[in-house]
Design a protein that fits this description.
The protein is α+β, with helices and mostly antiparallel strands. It has helices spanning about 5-15, 30-40, 55-65, 80, 85-100, 115-125, 155-165, 180-185, and strands at about 20, 20-25, 50-55, 100-105, 105-110, 130-140, 145-150. A 4-stranded antiparallel beta sheet has the order 4-5-7-6. A 3-stranded antiparallel beta sheet has the order 1-2-3. Helix 1 packs across helix 2 (about 30-40). It is globular, with a radius of gyration of 17 Å. The termini are far apart. Mean pLDDT is about 80; it is low at about 180-190.
């Protein structure tokens, strides 16, 4: 019953882009990180795949025991993560944000189909000093309700970045620029 930062990150990846013991994402670097963390945390010898990395049925049972649920509507932050260290919270949130989080302009958003999971993410961020607001809306695909955890200001977005140091994705490629006026952002770009 001991949570490690690597295991917390594996669970974060699976919460955002996973299905039982499979990680589904288009980014090779995220697959490699997922596999490295899984191998370290679970003492296995998994290999990264192109779009879907599977960890196997025995690992699936272990992860299910640890609180990894099947289906977006059933995702929760596992109790072991909640009861763990701040570093484990950070690693869980980093991986979760790599899959379903994004930063646009001045706002950071985490999107999920699960209200309980959204509230858990929000409470973790609040405990780390990041103030967010929760909203919902209809998704364009499959007419499902989506839940959004959003920072309320540039200042809160900067606090989130400092607290969890998000893994850079295409949706976050300018996160170091949050809060800078557009003129400053464009000054360093060569055309």
């Amino acid at each position: 019953d001991r949570m490690t930062p690597e295991l917390a990150r594996v669970l974060g990846y699976l919460a955002s882009e996973g299905c039982y013991a499979a990680f589904c994402n288009d980014r090779k670097d995220l697959h490699e990180d997922f596999v490295a963390c899984a191998n370290a945390a679970l003492s296995i010898n998994a290999k990264a795949a192109r779009r879907i990395t599977q960890l196997g049925s025995v690992v699936k049972d272990v992860l299910h025991y640890l609180g990894n649920a099947h289906g977006s509507e059933n995702k929760v932050v596992p109790d072991l993560v909640f009861r763990s260290s701040r570093q484990c919270w950070i690693e869980f949130l980093r991986a979760a944000y790599a899959g379903d989080g994004y930063i646009t302009g001045r706002v950071s958003t985490y999107a999920t189909m699960n209200e309980k999971f959204a509230r858990q993410i929000q409470s973790m961020l609040f405990a780390m000093g990041v103030h967010t607001r929760l909203s919902s809306g209809e998704s364009g695909h499959a007419y499902t309700t989506m839940w959004y955890v959003r920072t309320s200001s540039v200042h809160e977005t900067q606090k989130l970045i400092k607290a969890i140091r998000p893994i850079r994705t295409n949706r976050m490629k300018e996160y170091k620029e949050v809060g800078k006026p557009m003129r400053e952002r464009l000054a360093g770009i060569r055309i």
